[in-house]
Amino acid sequence: MNIDYRDGLLFTSIEIEYRGKRKVIDSIVIDTGAAESIISPDIVDEIEIYPEEDDEIVTFVGVGDSEHHSFVKKVKTVRVGSFLLKDVELDFGIIDPKGKINGLLGLDILVKVEAVIDLKEFKIL
């Protein structure tokens, strides 16, 4: 899987499937400092991922100790390059109000796929 290095960050794409609908999400930052992956809810409107009454709400602390909230959904699949994970719980919440970052690919997924990040070739192996 290719990585795009821009603005001092590592960007990639992922694909998620939820209730039979798939979406490729670009501008996902690879963030080894994030324990959990999180996706912007605005980017998944078209596959009908919305907060619902039964969803777990979580609070996390961002840069500068700012407090943020997200909701958790179980998606059928998450594809990271050639890796496919099934029945994955993902957080959905605002990461970048300017909309340049659509999500963070955190250690929860990177560890599951046993990702090796090659910074010479800018690929995830």
Automatic annotation (TrEMBL):
This is Aspartyl protease. It comes from Geosporobacter ferrireducens. Keywords: Hydrolase, Protease. One of its GO terms (biological process) is proteolysis. The keyword Disulfide bond does not apply. One of its GO terms (molecular function) is peptidase activity.
